[in-house]
Amino acid sequence: MAQCVQSVQEFVQDSFVPMVAVLCSEEAERVTRKNNLSFAELLRPFCRLTSEGHIRDPNNQVQVVKNLRICVNNVVTNPSTASAALSPAQRRLLNEVVLSCQPQEGSMTNVITAGAYNLNFSATTPWFETYRENFLQSMPASDHEFLNHYLACLLVVSSTEAVPVEQFLKLSQEQHRIQHSGEYTNPKWFIPNTLKYYVLLHDMSEGDEQRADTIYEDMKQRYGSQGCYLLKMNSHTFSAEDDEQIPDPWSQYLHRNNLHNQDMLDDVASTVSSAAVENIISAAEVDCHHATVKDGVSNSLESHPLHLDTASSSGSLHTLSAVHTDLKKVARVPESLAGGAGSHGACLTLNDHDHIRQFIQEFTFRGLLPHIEKNIRQLNDQLVSRKGLSRSLFTATKKWFGGGKVPEKSISEPKSTCGLLYPPEAPELQIRKMADLCFLVQHYELAYSCYHTAKKDFLSDQAMLYAAGALEMAAVSAFLQAGAPRPYPAHYMDTAIQTYRDVCKNMVLAERCALLSAEILKSQGKYSDAATLLIKMTSEDSDLRSALLLEQAAHCFINMRSPMVRKFAFHMILAGHRFSKAGQRRHALRCYCQAMQVYKERGWSLAEDHINFTIGRQSFTLHQPENAVTAFRQILTNDSRQTATQQGAFLREYLYVYKSVIGGNEVSLPQLPLPSINSSATRVYFGHERRLAEGEKQAATHVSLDQEYDQDLAAMWCHLEEQLVAAANRGIVPANFQPTQCCLNSQTDNLRHPLAVVEEPIIVEVAFRNPLKVSLALSNLSLLWRFTAGGVSPSMDKTTEEVAITNEETLALGMTQQDDIVTSEVILEFHISPEETKMARLRLLPHRTGQLNIVGVVYNLAADVSAEMAPTAEGQQTLDLMVVRGRQDLKIQGPRLNQTKEDKMLVRHGPDLRLNPIITPPMPLMEVFFLQFPTALLCGEIRKAYVEFCNVSSVALRGVRVASTHPDFFTFGSQATTPLTPLSPTSAENCSAYKTMATALQPGSVASEMLVSAEDFSQPAGVVEIPIEGSMLQPGESTQLPLWLRGPDQEGVHEINFLFYYESTEKGNKISHRVLRHTVFICASRSLSVQVSACRSSVPPLHSVDDKGSGGTLVFVDVENINTSEAGVREFHIVQVSSSSQHWRLHKCINPAKDKDCKLTSRERAKLCFRATRCKPYQDTLDAVGKYTFADLNLGNERIVSSSTPCGDFFFRSCRTSESQRVDVASSRTSSSKNQGHAPTEDRASDIINIVKKCNELDLNIIVIWKAYMVEDNKQLILEGQLHVALQTIDKEASSLTPREEAQEMVLLKFKSELPPPVVLPSAELSQLIKTNLHYPETYTHPFVQDSLCLVPVTLTLSNCSLAQVDVIIELRHKSTGPESLEVHSSFTWVGQTQYKLQLKPQEVLCLTLRACFLQAGVYNLNTPRVFAKPAEQGAMCDTSQQTASPALIIINNA
Known about the structure:
By secondary structure, the chain is α+β, with helices and mostly antiparallel strands. The chain is built from 35 helices and 59 strands.
């Protein structure tokens, strides 16, 4: 239970106080009415005694009476008998008391933390205490107990009466008649000789004080000084001290409509029939549609506390307000009866207050307490005298001598309900009477023993009502005994309650009993027992009582040692439901709100919905529409588990409430909860949506809202844009460079204001989600914006003239838009299916420069009506009413900051400005279209396409450039070498993409050569400047350019990205440049595989065709058709092989087969053989340095100029990419080897390696040009293409197919620097320092008969291939080991010097003349000399055996 202002002891004591009646003469009543009070009301604030009183008990022990309060009431005769239930008027007034007592604003609250719950609820429940107090005061007097029977009667007469004593006599006789005539059952009197106390009332303002004193002296003589009192009052004079503020102690007693005032009860009962009251109360109930009135009680079993109202019509809400006002009117009736307005006690001074207080004290101590003491003694004497008799004899005598009980003759109730009724003089009742007297004067020990005795008697007589009363008071007496000699007998109370409720059917007494017991149990910490007791007392006969007790039970659960939070919440809900049925809407709302703290956001979704729904309805009926809207909003925004029909009902109810809240006259739009908007998923797109392909033209893909954002792709585009900006700014990226972002979302960088352009649309994509299971219909959906002209939004400190313009008012009122600033697109209808997420794309078109803030969206919300529910005309009208216009703001939280220490410690978020663009002046806008652009190519295939650039804006543009992820895929040609091919795509259908020259194929023809500078083809950093005439495009102008494409070398699908860059001709814009993206996917299929290898010619230098005797090199080209048949290619023709190098060139084709054309069908392979020679040195011109020599060997009848566009372009592009790859690999290798710090040996070794490598370097690039014949749509197409092979070194094969990279093996980390390993050069490279040739006659005839030794001269030519001095050792002796040595010895031998040690200068050729000696005829291999070589000045190195040429065979004939 909640905390109470009083302690338990005070509460119980104040529940049972001595009752004093008042009888006033008319004149006395007139005197007191001057103060707007009756005499009983006048005394009420002073009825608690401030000092202690004393009485002596029958044993003559002094008993202290502390803090005694007496109750003074006017005598009201009422012929009605005491009933077991409160009258309807009493019920209604209790209802009113509770209604008028609401929690104060800012009153004390309890905050309880139990587990994960933090609850905040009212610490006290003053409405319950007020109810309890008024309930106890309004209890009808009963015959089975005497506690609320009158002990004394005050007879009040005014001193202004002619003969006051006569008036006293009249009043005394009146009192005697009321008590003893038997006409009146009420009021009830405690003992036959009631104490009469005579009060003379003297009005100081009008009466004669001396006369009053004289009369009082006479009274003392007549009635004794202890039986009368002179009370002087109304001393206040209005003239003198008008300013003096006299306190008003009466208001707190009177504003509660004291229910014990029986006059008022009768008046009200006659004016308002009980049925009418009940009807009003039950009609006002929202949850209960079929309330039945039964015994004057609203008894509705149809509506369960947790039952949700599924009534589809919201008609129930229409009637509420009217009923509520009626209820208020009825409720205010008692206020007018209670004595009207005006201050109380206006004629009294503070001295008068003291006089009244003194009077009460005098009456109590000198009149009432001695009277009670005397009666206790008398009763005690009677009982003691009877105790002498045995129990059995006592009962027997009672039976015979008329002391017996009279059985109840009532037909309406069965005999067993209350058992017997005792006559007033029955001895059992005397014990009870004595017990009650002792209880009233706080002699609890004696009271307990009397109650205990009486209880036994009553139980033995089966007088259950009496027994229950004795049990109840015995338990209370036991509790109140000082020092607590015995524990509180809770079982007494339980038995009493059960008896009252079940046997006697008296709920009023049962309720009193429960209220007392619960309070006592609570004081002992037995909250669980108290809660059980209170819950048991709830029933259908009184909703108000049930509600209050359930609420107290809930407080018991939360106040336990370990709080039972969910039980608290559940019982709060039950209490709220019963409050609602009792018409106590504010209390119902409060209970539901308190329970909501427990259920909120804990997964109890259905309970949450019920609570929110009830809160919404109650708030609406209490004219708290904002709270109602909030509650309904909660139901709709949560992920509800309700059925679709239920959600539909919620939605309709919500829209109805909303509509009534807005009232249609507000300019500012309200925030709507539906549908939910995922603000962070909002995407903003700047610019026109791209045009689709027009006929043959294919538009650049650019950026669209349909594309998913990809972080890696964004980085790639940013990198390309940096390249372009650097190229446009002399190779430097400006410090303030920001990558262009056309489409902003949650992953882009939104820390700066985006830049939009005047007259270019801004498209905002808003993500709507419908959380309900019913469809939503949105209409007139548009964006809400705020616009500030002339730049950035005005800051607070500047007093700027610029005022933000917004479209909110025009949207709210449905007026026409302000189209001169920003045009907003309106979506007329937008339907969202149940639980669907749907994007709405809303467009704005700005017409002025300035700062635009996109605030939110504005729309009409309605429940979507499906087709099968075709509305009637009437239904359509209500549906129109159910459309609400409102807004939702787009609030986007920026990214979390994580830079500084403070950022990391706190949770800070940066700005997200994607919805706040700055509108800039007009900019150029370029569109790019592609014509004849392929989607599939063969590897290396060359294709010509066309690009069209259009300026679609009103501003001229210039500086068009393009960068690509695959710069080797396309070329626009170079100015110097672009062939004059047809410009229009239609005239170029069957022309070759190459520049060709007709030649006659002659066998053994020498290559055509051309010298080209690489600068003619190269572009800095892969950025291509697009050669537009005049380098400028005027507004509306367009131009077409040819574009050559080459299929990628690797098969598969390739994503190729182009980024076009252009600038405005006007300087100083906020937007420095613009870009346009284009992505193509090219499917490359296999064509040819080319393997190229080179080896040194074994022809001796002197016999070679070259000038200066520089030996030729043989180049072998293996071509294989690896094309798969799916592409439909029939055969490939190798039409030309070209070379490009700074040092070497192809000289002539030396194919032995002498084929005119080289045709390859599927999987065929051909081998071509060429001789390559060094380029002629051009001494005469300096500009030839670093130029490339292109040599063309055509195998067909037309020569393709390989040095011009597009062949040369693609050659240089592929060279550059392969070189950059090689550089990357080399740099990674060198960087990894730099850690080892032994520089001298490293340098020396690298010098040797370089020397050796130079010796074998070739650096010859082969270009194989082919044509392919394929059939497509019954037409033969000729495809052409080129493959590149870079031949780096002799004897190493190079291929046109790039080898697949293998994963690197894992290498262990080394933490210590190891000693460098000794330099070991690769023997393969060292074995080619010296090239050897033997020159000798093929046949030699010798007469062996004449001369047995045949000497043949042989010339050994040594060529130093390297650029360093070489030490050479020539060993002519045969190896002495091996099986072939005998055979050799028997065949021939070298004669003369057998070992030579020579030194060859760089590139030197040296001839040695040797002699071979043969013993007999035969075929001999002369290639036996072994040549060892090493670079000079390398002492530590071993000589390396040189690679020898093929066998040199000589035939020796015998003559």
